[in-house]
Amino acid sequence: MSAPLLEIRGLEVVFPTRGGLVRAVDGVDLEVFPGECLGVVGESGSGKSVTFLAVLGLLRPPGRIGAGEIRFEGRTISHLPEAELRALRGRAIALTLQDALTALNPALTVEQQIAETIETHDPDLPRGRARQRVLRERAQELLRLVGIPEPARRLAAYPHELSGGMRQRVMIAIALSCRPKLLIADEPTTALDVTIQAQVLELLGELRARLGTAIVLVSHDLGVVAEHCARVAVMYAGQVVEYGPTRAVIGDPRHPYTRGLLRSIPSIEEPERPIRPIPGQMADPIRPPPGCRFAPRCSLARPACRVPIALRPIEGGRAARCIEVAA
Amino acid sequence: MSAVAVTAATGIGAPGGVRPLLEIEGLVKHYDLRRGLRRLIEPAEGHTVRALDGVDLALVRGETLGVIGESGSGKTTLGRCALGLVEPTAGTVRFDGMDLARLDPATAKALRRRMQIVFQDPYASLNPRRTVERIVGLGLAVHERLDRAAARARILAMLERVGLGAAHLDRYPHQFSGGQRQRIGIARALVLRPDFVVCDEPVSALDVSIQAQILALLRELKEELGLTYLFIAHDLAVVAHLSDRVAVLYLGKLVELGPTRAVLKEPAHPYTRALLAAVPRLDGRRDRGAGRLAGEPPSPVRPPAGCRFHPRCPYALPVCRVREPELSEVAPRHRAACHLHREAA
Q: Can you tell me the distance from the alpha carbon of B317 to that of B312, in angstroms, rounded to the nearest whole number?
């Protein structure tokens, strides 16, 4: 296998709050390989979004990286000065957010927003009148790339004039405007209707194939990840609890949380199949349970679960953070 | 609505001649977008949201009818009309034989206690300044004259039934998680022992593991209390899991209605097929591109002529552009509004 594009080692992200220190991400190890699509699945409070905000250097103070290292193409980026991070963002690593209506600037047209991104990151743009022409051509080309009909007309549109699906496409166009090597798509389809979701996910898949962009698909929806990602990491309460090839993880989950998630989802093939909810609630982020974070909700929990457990490797490039897994 | 449509509507939900608990006939709800004097100078055409445009449905006591549809399909408006919360532009809604538009105040009040709703957003639908006891007890205070101790006992019993307890009575909504808030919303809806509950996207704001808890709870409560649900959601798997029958809405029109299994296994309308094809599958082996929809739903302000789905339909015939298809039987108790079935029949 080639060298990873992105490597996250022992990442900790902390947020000081009045109630105490919240360790939103606690010892996450992940890697993303060139051109792959990695799925990161978890519920609210799992740390899935915060992990990648940390990668982009976009943590909102007082949130900060408490420990660990993030490497992009072998270079450590976890403690870069802001100016260097800015250069990296957009050009090397780009981000799309769930809610395109708030992520886009309501006062600028689609063309202005795309042009702004290209101008910020591309030093090779021509000067003078040619610049405007090149920017317009590139913006139009990008809209065509993300499947927006009548791109020339859409350039003049403001975000509120577009549908949710179109806005998500525009955001993807902006993210791809500088040909990043890695695209982090945070819940790209959560706000969309199911037929539009299918279109946007298909678009992401096509773009990955055509441009070779690696994608991290952050989602709460295991089905979305199952269809589009070869590998998946399942997060719970700030930690990766299981990872591996998606088909293996979903077909034969080894962590009780992954199993519980799968049993919680109603099946469209067998709607009568009873669903079995996971009892209890997400761990308290300020006072997480000692040892395994999932133990209080786990039917297999025993006293040995009260000491911290590392991810244990399993055959087939898999791992799970559970003492039931033979180390 | 014509007499034919009326009998057809009643027939849909009344196997064995049982009178339906809820009958919706020719339901139309238009929202006028013109404000003030503009109503005088601008034509209604092009300024009216046709949220519902002639829907017939009937629910028998004890069943769960699932309603699926995407944004703008009219599913929420349908739920609001079914409860009499929104006044229809045309058509009737009858509950237990009584026309909701022609009720005297006393009957209206009596009916309201029998019809309740569970809302989508457990954050916005609970008053942040009221304790759980007052939120759940408000309906009791209006409809039943209980002394404080008796009211408290009823509230507590209901809270315990939904998985909360005495310790929660004096707390405020912000002290609860999303799942717990939805339990409070369910307790509020059920404390008056209603017959009929509209569940409007009750789990779509919740995490997967919590969503499953709430679905299981809704299912148990339905069995225990003999409830009838109109269950509205955009998630097909969730709707299918809970519903005996499924109604599919597209741009204010009912396009398919039938037993859950039949609609899932043999969807008769191309839109239903496309919806099913768009649902991500856990085995990752979905037939990619099969029935995949291009384009986006048109605006309900300017719905296409003929069949409203024809601009996106891969099987559209010339007739689909001009004539609106009627809901017709494709199998026993299974109906679809599509010219393809007329052609085949």
A: 12
Fold designation for B3-96+195-344:
Rossmann fold (3.40.50)
For B278, which of A194, A272, A281 is closest by C-beta distance?
Answer: A194
User: What is the mean predicted confidence (pLDDT) over A178-200?
Assistant: 89
Q: What is the pLDDT of residue B285?
A: 63
Place of tokens 């009568």: A272
Structure tokens belonging to residue A17: 């709050």
CA distance B252 to B273: 18
B276-322 confidence digits (pLDDT tens): 988 888 876 665 555 578 788 888 888 999 999 999 999 999 999 99
Q: Which residues contact B85 (CB under 8 A, 6 or more apart)?
A: B117
How many Cβ pairs closer than 8 A exist between chain A and B? 125
Task: Give the Cα separation of A320 and A311 in Å (integer).
Answer: 5
Q: What is the pLDDT of residue B6?
A: 37
Q: Which amino acid is at A299?
A: S
With beta carbons less than 8 A apart as the criterion, state whether A13 and A47 touch: yes
User: Alpha carbon of A142 to those of A114, A130, A148, A291: distances in Å?
Assistant: 9, 18, 9, 48
Closest by CA position to A222, among listed A161, A264, A254, A270 = A264
Close Cβ partners of B189 (under 8 Å, ≥ 6 residues apart): B116, B117, B118, B197
Average pLDDT over residues B131-139: 94
Is pLDDT of A249 > 60? yes
Q: Which residues of B touch A193 (CB under 8 A)?
A: 70-71, 234, 297
Per-residue pLDDT, averaged over A57-84, amounts to 93
- Tell me if chain B has a CB within 8 Å of the CB of A76: no
Strands A20-32 and A37-41: unpaired
B33-68 pLDDT tens trace: 888 888 888 887 778 889 999 999 999 999 999 999
**Residue A61: φ, ψ to 5°:** -60, 145
User: Is residue B164 helix, strand or coil?
Assistant: coil
Kindly indicate the confidence band of residue A5, based on its pLDDT and cuts at 50, 70 and 90: very high
CA torsion angle for B157, B161, B163, B169 (degrees, to 10)?
-20
d(CA A286, CA B198): 38
Residues in chain A closer than 8 A to B208 (CB atoms): 43, 220-222, 261, 264-265
- Residue B25 scores a pLDDT above 80: yes
Q: What are phi and psi of B85, to 5 degrees?
A: -80, -25
Nearest residue to B216 via CA among B282, B263, B162: B162
* Helix extents (H) in chain A: 48-55, 82-88, 100-103, 110-121, 129-145, 151-154, 164-176, 194-211, 222-228, 246-251, 256-264
Taking the C-alpha atoms of residue B137 and residue B152, their distance in angstroms, rounded to an integer, is: 8
Q: Give residue limits of the domains in chain B.
A: 3-96+195-344
Token code pair at residue B12: 């849909």
Contacts 24+ apart (CB under 8 A), B311-317: B312/B271, B312/B274, B313/B270, B313/B271, B314/B270, B315/B270, B315/B340, B317/B343
The minimal CB distance from B292 to the residues A198, A223, A271 is found for A198
